[in-house]
Write a structure and sequence with these properties.
The complex is a heterodimer of chains A (347) and B (376). In chain A, the strands form four sheets. Chain A has a three-stranded mixed sheet with strand order 1-5-6. In chain A, helix 4 runs antiparallel to helix 6 and helix 6 runs antiparallel to helix 7. Helices cover 53% and strands 14% of the residues of chain A. Chain A is built from eleven helices and eleven strands. With 376 residues, chain B is of the alpha+beta class. Helix content of chain B is 53%, strand content 14%. In chain B, the strands form two sheets. Chain B has a four-stranded mixed sheet with strand order 1-4-5-8. Chain B has a four-stranded antiparallel sheet with strand order 2-3-7-6, covered by helices on one side. In chain B, a hairpin with a 2-residue loop joins strand 2 and strand 3. The chains are: A alpha+beta (347), B alpha+beta (376). The interface between A and B is large, with 40 and 44 residues.
Chain lengths: 347, 376
């Protein structure tokens, strides 16, 4: 139940692609340099319905079903990794807001979301809770109006919608390498107080598998556009009297990049097509896809040579953005452990 | 076979480490953040002799040899890769003039490169249409009654914003491919030499990379370095040595990132982090041997083209991998500027590109292998 039939999904993808070429690609370099998205982008996303991903369908939203979100994220990532990450994070937050997402203001401003269940405890404290857990990376820390924080209250999932002003004092340094326009900052959870009104407690499990699929989709989009640009450049760049695409050294790279992306896409499709659980298809798609995206983006930069190292082209930014996907919310080591745990558990 | 540095080499390494830690390291993060050109650090480098490490004492250098040069560059790059690349190129320019210049050219230019009067030297070979294939260059030098007139445009010139001397390659004969190319020494204040706007780059943001235009730049007969039409071998020889420098720079960056991550391992390391660390240490150790092997051949006056290419392709690619692993070991903390690892990741990436891409290094290696097999 994606909430969208194939035609509607196709239309959504097309209008997203149109926005990407008209607004996102031209703006992305500036957003990266400034460390934030243009404020007009939230409105544009809202008009497309991309801020209602994850909201109840009855309220005009679209379920945070990966079958809808993943293709959209892939298209957005072709324009800008940071924007795709902002939309993905927002969709995860909205999905956790349940009935609260009816409040209209949650659907025309950015929301953030951070997973920390399992390691983050919500300890009762007066008329609210105090959180206790390791620092987390908070996407859109400077731009989101509020953040959904995942925690555990004893054995129970505890979810809080915390306004930005209450997070301010707990925010640490920015992620400097990639996804700069998504202003990712370290959030010190330990000692953070949350009030009674902040508690959401939606039904079901935290959307961790969706988060993994979304990151895999962003990585795939970054990789695919990096390959497209590399092919175009290799066909136009002449050295040694011919386009470098005629050189076997370049052909080997392009073939290897395309093959890797085919594998990534297959994993994303598998993770998207069926419900996933920890250590399952979404974990594999994220773990493999992010690593493959870094390799492809790095090779694309390499094929561009010196100009690929400059900020005049998106190649270097895509490499930095893709590198964050490897670390996104869960370390690769933790992901591998999850895969092994699944292998060892009785079927 | 001896894998130890000589006492003299070890002393240079220790001195370079002290210089790098006192002069370069404290400025490195701000330099990356604000950009610009490390004039003060390069002044200090000149005073320490670090702009003429493998240059004769008579010409103002340290005369410490190629192995010492590699050791010193590794130490400097651990502290600040951006300042180090300006040092590498300036050393390369001083060496190439010392090797190919007339007595008058050497005495005029080399001492003032070593002592910083020229700030640094620059190496102007690449053009928009001539990167991996420099023989495709379009810059022309035309004979006049008492010298040459140079017209053309160079690209990606390291230190181009501040360099006091440019070694410039230009075509002096039509046709003839690489045989029609000559090499010239052009002062930075020559009328008609226009410095463009520095590129904004992924990393090495404290080093300038600049397009340089030559608009009817007049130079005298004494500006021609080596023979007319003999410029291309000069470039190739300079790049052989230059690749040792870039390999050493890459190694230093990978070393610094690995050290920064190892700090994290002090408190309760995970087995997976230890495995990553071990992998990086193995590859850095191998890269170091390749670099020192090439430098040692150079010191003994032997051909080292293949060994320099081995060192450059391996050190740059493995240093990039080491920076990637350092990020993985540190997790979210690695992505913050304060750890220095994200800067290393951005800085090291270019070492696979400049002074011959990895692909070109592999071509060089293969060519040398075939050459060795076909000659008895």
């Amino acid at each position: 139940m994606s909430g969208l039939d194939d035609d509607s999904l196709g239309l959504l993808r097309d209008s997203t692609a149109e926005l990407v070429s008209r607004v996102v690609l031209p703006g992305a370099r500036t957003w990266d340099e400034r460390g934030c998205l243009a404020s007009s982008v939230a409105r544009a996303m809202g008009e497309l319905g991309l801020l209602a991903l994850g909201a109840p369908e009855a309220r005009g939203g679209v379920a945070a079903d990966p079958r809808v979100v993943v293709p959209v994220l892939e298209v957005l990532a072709r324009g800008d990794g940071s924007l795709a990450l902002a939309v993905a994070t927002h969709a995860l937050a909205v999905a956790c807001c349940g009935e609260r997402s009816q409040e209209r203001h949650l659907l025309d401003t950015w929301l953030s979301w951070a997973p920390s269940a399992g390691t983050c405890q919500a300890l009762p404290d007066g008329d609210g809770w105090t959180l206790q857990g390791p620092d987390v990376a908070l996407v859109m820390a400077d731009q989101a109006e509020a953040a959904v924080l995942e925690a555990r209250d004893g054995d129970v999932r505890a979810t809080f919608l915390v306004p930005r002003e209450d997070l301010q004092a707990a925010l640490g340094p920015r992620c400097a390498l990639g996804m700069r326009a998504a202003s990712i900052r370290q959030l010190r959870l330990s000692g953070l107080r949350v009030g009674k009104a902040a508690r959401l407690d939606p039904e079901g499990e935290p959307p961790f598998e969706h988060a993994r699929s979304f990151v895999a989709a962003i990585a795939l989009g970054l990789g695919r556009v990096a390959l497209d640009d590399a092919v175009a450049y290799a066909r136009s760049r002449v050295q040694f009297g011919e386009p470098i695409a005629a050189l076997q050294a370049i052909q080997v790279k392009l073939a290897s990049m395309a093959t890797g992306l085919e594998a990534s896409a297959a994993l994303v499709a598998r993770a998207t097509g069926a419900p996933s659980s920890s250590g399952g298809p979404a974990t594999a798609a994220r773990l493999f896809g992010a690593r493959e995206a870094v390799r492809v983006c790095s090779e694309s930069l390499q094929i561009h040579g010196g100009v690929g190292y400059t900020c005049d082209l998106p190649a270097e930014r895509r490499l930095r953005d893709a590198r964050w996907c490897i670390q996104a919310w869960w370390s690769p080591a933790a992901e591998r452990e999850a895969i092994v745990a699944r292998l060892r558990s009785p079927a | 076979m001896n894998f130890e540095a000589s006492p003299e080499q070890a002393a240079i390494e220790a001195e370079a480490r002290r210089f790098a830690q006192t002069e370069l390291a404290p400025r490195a993060e701000a330099l990356d953040r604000t950009g610009g050109f490390p004039v003060a650090s390069l002044g200090a480098a000149a005073r320490g002799g670090w702009l003429g490490i493998n240059v004769a004492r008579a010409l103002g250098g340290l005369e410490a040899g190629a192995v010492s040069y590699a050791l010193a560059i590794m130490e400097c790059a651990r502290a600040c890769a951006a300042t180090t690349v300006a040092m590498c190129v300036s050393n390369m320019v001083a060496e190439v003039i010392a090797a190919f210049g007339t007595t008058a050219q050497r005495e005029r230019w080399v001492p003032s490169l070593c002592d910083g009067r020229l700030v640094v030297g620059a190496f102007a070979l690449s053009e928009a249409g001539a990167g991996s294939d420099p023989s495709a260059m379009q810059t022309r030098a035309r004979r006049t009654a008492n010298g040459w007139v140079i017209d053309g445009a160079k690209l990606w010139i390291t230190s181009g914003s501040h360099a006091g001397l440019f070694v410039v390659w230009a075509r002096t004969r039509e046709g003839g491919g690489s045989k029609g190319i000559s090499c010239f020494l052009v002062p930075g204040d020559a009328p008609g030499l226009h410095r463009g706007v520095p590129e904004t780059k992924m990393g090495l943001r404290g080093s300038t990379t600049v397009p340089i235009a030559f608009d009817a730049v007049e130079v005298g007969d004494d500006a021609l370095l080596h023979d007319e039409g003999g410029g291309f071998p000069v470039a190739l020889m300079a790049l052989d040595g230059g690749r040792i420098g870039i390999a050493a720079q890459a190694w230093g960056i990978g070393r610094a990132a690995t050290d920064a991550a190892a700090v994290q391992l002090a408190d309760g390391p995970s087995p997976s982090a230890l495995a990553l660390w071990a992998e990086s240490e193995t590859e850095l150790a191998a890269a170091r041997l390749l670099i020192l092997k090439a430098a040692s051949l150079k010191d003994r006056g032997q051909r080292f083209t293949r060994e320099a290419a081995h060192a450059k392709v391996f050190a740059s690619e493995r240093a990039f991998a080491a920076c990637d692993r350092a990020l993985e070991i540190l997790g979210d903390r690695g992505f913050l500027a304060e750890a220095g690892v994200e800067r290393a990741y951005r800085d090291v990436r270019v070492t696979m590109i400049y002074e011959g891409t990895s692909e070109i290094q592999r071509v060089v290696i293969a060519r040398e292998l075939v050459r060795a097999r076909s000659s008895p």
